[in-house]
Design goal:
Layout: E1 3-11, H1 18-28, H2 32-42, E2 45-54, E3 57-66, E4 73-74, H3 75-83, H4 89-110, E5 118-119, H5 125-144, H6 146-149, E6 151-156, E7 159-160, E8 165-168, E9 171-174, H7 178-187, E10 191-192, H8 202-214, E11 229-237, E12 247-257, E13 263-274, H9 279-291, E14 296-303, E15 309-317, H10 319-333, E16 339-348, E17 350-360, E18 363-373, E19 379-384, H11 386-396, H12 400-415
Parallel strand pairs: 1-6, 7-10
Antiparallel strand pairs: 1-12, 2-3, 4-5, 8-9, 11-12, 13-15, 13-16, 14-15, 17-18, 18-19
Helix pairs in contact: 1-5, 2-5, 3-4, 4-5, 4-7, 4-8, 7-8, 9-10, 11-12
């Protein structure tokens, strides 16, 4: 069946920065209040937004004003603060990936180990808020508003990096700055230079590099496709006045095609065999690995040499997390080595967390539910979060299995409108208004 696909199309003809990306995505419909709340949880900033004209183009201008002074940090401090902020797991992971891109670039440029690297400009509160804001905006448009926009991919034109020099902590540097150039090299983002000032910041480069890779379509020399129609257009304003419009333009393009129903993911698998580690230590390790970024963790019983019983510890994670998690496994188990198996072929469904409210024994409970979708939007599974159901069962005196059943039945009732038929794999528009 031929279906329409919607692509987020990015045109960085005047470069890109965190605030320009956020502004343009708010212009497309991303929730500004959600961006404010999540950014302010992670950084000591005050969010503001206004309409502004750049060369006659009306654009959204956003600003994160720092409340305190210099706050340079290490990467692990930033990641810890993000993970402690109570954000959706997808935003946490996206932010960690973007910070990791910047950290690896800075580490290579300054020949400093990542664990000892100080983030200067990109470690300030406003820069942290920019990254959290960008990740929240992408999350909101691709996940929260999935029924409305039905975005499936990102495409980006070559980036204008500007020209001349830029002043930073290390003095006057050529444009593109060394860290920006390293991000461009590692990501494969094509660029060109026009202008007399820096137009592409490290944050802007890292965000474009990560999300064009995550959502698959990458960069193109032109639009790369013939759109049937333009659904929406957004403009995010830069801070400087330039001869050409200092804005980032993003569009939602609708094209005909047959979408892939399953998402593709790039992961690494960590494995090690142990035969002298207690169950309590392994149980604590698995819980700790999941809290520290592992996508999945499991223990598999083994019969090892000389008939000794043992276990294989297997962890699924992002490549940027594998070194850190492997070191954790070694420290906590004493194993002499961890196998790292890279793979680029994991097939996944899209997942999101929503909430459903249930009444049990006269008490109201809000239960998070995990919703699994195909890339065409159809729901294939709904499951209630165990810990929340267990708490509700303990407080209400109702058996746990009944609480889980009630929560999942209510979630299915709410999301039933996203089903069309058991074997039909296409999206049902909610209303013509959407």
């Amino acid at each position: 069946m031929i279906m329409t696909q919607r692509t987020l199309f990015i045109e960085p003809f005047s470069g890109a920065s965190g605030d320009m990306i956020i502004g343009s995505l708010i212009d497309l419909g991303a929730d500004a209040d959600l961006i404010r709340r999540y950014a302010e949880r992670c950084a000591d900033v005050k969010f503001s937004m206004r309409r502004i004209e750049r060369s006659g183009i009306s654009a959204t201008d956003i600003c994160f004003e720092e409340r305190s002074g210099n706050n340079e940090r290490h990467l692990n401090e930033i990641i810890a603060a993000v993970r402690a902020a109570g954000l959706p797991a997808e935003i946490e992971n996206d932010a960690a990936e973007v910070f990791g891109i910047i950290a690896r670039a800075e580490s290579k440029v300054h020949h400093t180990d990542i664990d000892h690297l100080h983030f200067h400009e990109t470690g300030q509160d406003d820069a942290i808020a920019d990254i959290i804001g960008c990740c929240t905006a992408f999350y909101d448009l691709f996940t929260n508003k999935y029924p409305k926009l039905h975005l499936s991919s990102v495409r980006c034109l070559p980036v204008n990096v500007g020209g001349g020099t830029v002043h930073c902590m290390h003095g006057e540097l050529p444009v593109p700055a060394p860290a920006v150039l390293e991000i461009l090299k590692e990501s494969g983002l094509p660029y060109y230079s026009r202008g007399d000032r820096e137009l592409l910041t490290p944050t802007g480069a890292a965000v474009l590099a990560y999300f064009t890779k995550k959502y698959g379509s990458g960069t193109v020399s032109g639009s790369g496709q013939t759109p049937e129609k333009v659904i929406a257009v957004g403009y995010g304003s830069g801070k400087a006045e330039t001869k050409s419009p200092n804005v980032l333009r993003t569009s939602v393009l609708e094209t005909a095609g047959t979408p892939e129903l399953f998402a593709k993911d790039e992961i690494e698998i960590l494995e090690t065999n142990v035969d002298d580690v207690t169950g309590e230590v392994i149980g604590n390790l698995i819980e700790s690995l999941m809290k520290n970024g592992a996508r999945d963790a499991a223990v598999i019983p083994l019969t090892m040499k000389k008939g000794r019983p043992g276990q294989m510890i297997r962890v699924v994670c992002k490549g940027s997390d594998s070194q850190r998690l492997a070191e954790q496994i070694i420290r906590e188990t004493g194993t002499l080595g961890v196998r790292v198996i890279p793979t680029k072929h994991r097939i996944t469904v899209e997942r999101e967390i929503a909430e459903t409210e249930i009444s049990v024994a006269g008490k109201q409970f809000r239960i998070p539910v995990k919703i699994a979708r195909l890339s065409d939007g159809s729901v294939i599974h709904v499951s209630a979060e165990y810990e929340n159901c267990r708490t509700a069962a303990a407080e209400s005196g109702i058996p746990l299995r009944d609480v889980i059943r009630i929560a999942e039945e209510e979630a299915n009732r709410i999301y039933k409108k996203y089903w069309i038929g058991e074997n039909q794999r296409h999206w049902k528009e909610l209303t013509n208004k959407n």
